Fold these 4 entries.
Entry 1:
Amino acid sequence: MYLVVTHGLTMRLLARRALGWSVALFEALSNPACCEDRILTSGPSGWTLDRPFEQWRPASDASGQIPTTR
């Protein structure tokens, strides 16, 4: 288990890398608020996020935060 204390942009970058989000989706997401947390969990089927980031506009490639397959 790891605990990473970081800023919102870095939190989104880590989630993007782990979950395989597109750049278009990454740019459409908002940073979390101050002291807001996210739990990124590794399991047999890959990484999962406890709840989505707020999305302020649709991604230009129509991708979503929850991967359909990995």
Entry 2:
Amino acid sequence: MSAGEAPSIFTRIILGEVPSHRVFENAHVFAFLDINPLALGHTLVVPKREVERLEALPEEEAAAIGAALGRIARAVLETVGAQDYNVLQNNGPTAGQVVRHVHFHIIPRRAGDGLGYRWNTKQADAGELAELAAKIAARLAEGA
């Protein structure tokens, strides 16, 4: 959160200023039911630190979210009786992020639920992929 910005709705939920239906909390992670669910059990998993984008989250806190996601998903599925689920996470408005606070959606899925999604793939050139992979690997080696 930048100086002068109001806290996000998720920060206000974490602080108890806005009521929520909490399902999990630890030192770094807070999870609660979405009040406008796509499916029964739709759960939001957020870091307690208000950070807009995933890459800005400190590694320890990102690891804590990663560790919690599977555990929370398993509990949600067992509770609502779903067998499958999507984990959705958007970074930036072009990607569909509405609340400027990192968050993951755990969305239980059932056959015929009508939710769907589009996955419009296209064939990539192997040479371009090799060049791109080398560039990304080099950036990671530099400490990105």
Entry 3:
Amino acid sequence: MDSTRKDKAASFFQCTIRERAVFEAGIKLAAIYHQFIGAPVSASNAESLERAIENGVMVQPFVESVSVRIRRESLRKKRNEYDYQSLTGEMVDATVAIRIEDVRAIGRMRYIEEIKYPLMYVERIEQL
């Protein structure tokens, strides 16, 4: 993004760079959840689905890295030719690193058994 567009976009954010990095991490995690939950998944396509999710997120602004793991222990065998499983929030463990200027925000989404919920949270924020 050229500096004029970057500066124009930045002018809409009435927050610190740190807060914006956290915001961007949340947007990316929400995109993973809302775009991919419900996708057909099996042991045979889990790895390719992980890479597709990662590649989709990597093209978004400020993404430094992304890692997606589908919990294989959540997958079951097909019962018949019509049976398939859909990806759920309980199956996804995703981490995104967002870098804006000298701030890196690490966001995470994973199923937390104690609260029975696929929680999206800020894992850490680093000043570079």
Entry 4:
Amino acid sequence: MTKVKSLADLKKMQEDLQAKLKVRERGTDPEGYVRIKVAMATCGIASGAKGVMEFLIDELDKRNIDTLITQTGCMGYCYAEPTIEVTLPNKEPVVFGYVDIRKADEIIEKYIKNGEFVEGIIPVNYESIDNN
């Protein structure tokens, strides 16, 4: 546990805990938020997915865009890592490949904020399994 040495340390700890609580609250009703999954299997991490995820977390928070960001394992697009899946409210998921910081910024500005498609969409190579 971190030692609290000043009022600033205590306020920082409070902000961090509130941010974690906010993420947990979003998880109970995720359909109302932009949802982003970052592929963090070995190939994704080796290609820079960790940096992309950190960028997305920081930038979406700075831009006040309510987002639920999670990491996932392999999505099957090893050739196009880093990959992210973005689901806008009431829309189908879209997978983007070769996502670096520049591409992540473009996805935020064009796709997430304005609904405009950007280059780099990967056609879905899987289907949902329905147990009906």
